[in-house]
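Practice problem: Intraflagellar transport protein 57 homolog
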Amino acid sequence: MAAAAAVVTPSGLEDEVSRSRGEGAGEVVVERGPGAAYHMFVVMEDLVEKLKLLRYEEDLLRKNNLKPPSRHYFALPTNPGEQFYMFCTLAAWLINKAGRPFEQPQEYDDPNAIISSILSELRSFGRTADFPPSKLKSGYGEHVCYVLDCLAEEALKYIGFTWKRPAYPVEELDEETVAEDDAELTLNKVDEEFVEEETDNEENFIDLNVLKAQTYRLDMNESAKQEDILESTTDAAEWSLEVERVLPQLKVTIRTDNKDWRIHVDQMHQHKSGIESALKETKGFLDRLHNEISRTLEKIGSREKYINNQLEHLVQEYRAAQAQLSEARERYQQGNGGVTERTRILSEVTEELEKVKQEMEEKGSSMTDGAPLVKIKQSLTKLKQETIQMDIRIGVVEHTLLQSKLKEKSNMTRDMHATVIPESAIGSY
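Answer key — structure tokens:
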């Protein structure tokens, strides 16, 4: 699909700048005209008409409970999230209409994956998409309208739709209406006939002498036929019937044209007279209203002055009371600040006092409690028992040691009194 924009230069020339998309890919826009910014509105209106031809209201909107988009829905930003969802839904439906299987996108699907799938399907139709996919994520704009329009064209091609010439119905008019139309005479026809007669008179040059001779002969003929004319043989009833029969054909109806300046002037005069008549009626009422309002304002002003004079001392007292009240509020604010500070100090002192009381209670309870003394006595008793057991063990050990020493001494004495010392024993020493 190719979109063309005409640019009018100051010299009066028209330069046509075209941008080709779809089948005519490969052309690059050299210059965008001032109307290029509004081209997407035209594309959007064409898209709505193509969607109506595809019966999208019955097949898509009613099944999915969607609202029908306006003719500039994808050209202006309203709600990007809703517009993107509508764009994906329409694109999927158009791809399916064009004979390609495409799953209907859901609300929580990945937008980038949906856009890439739509662009791949668009390229499979032979259309170009020389723009970044992020342009479609907003759900509106020139590229969104372009993609939907291309998909709608492919869907129309798939169903075999072709544009045909419009067939205008032939209206058959009645004989009476035809006769009345022939009898009517428009203002434009009157002006044209009048201009044609003037031009014919200017073109035909007639000699004055010839004209005088013709006039004289006509006068003579009329004077000769004057007697025949005075004696009429026509029946009055037949004459009246003939007049009634011919009367509708003799009507001259001048059709009013709203574009005629004469009608505009008449309307201006009528409006002027209506305004003047309405002004005469309303001016007196407005004057009376103005006078009443002025008198009321004067009364109110005088009343205010009187009340101010009468209540001057009360106003002064009120002002003095206001000043005292402001001073009292200031003092209250200052005192309130001091109270807040002292309250904070009091809370700190109270916390310290609670800590000291808790320590004193712990020390007092430890001093009056006899449990430590009982524990000390039990420990002493246990120590005495362990001391006795240790003494017994020491005595046993000393006794065992004394026995071993005595035994060793006895052995040494026996050895010393031995007479023969074995050689093996000497060798060992």
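Discussion: The chain has a mean pLDDT of 76. Students who identified this feature from the tokens alone can consider the problem solved.
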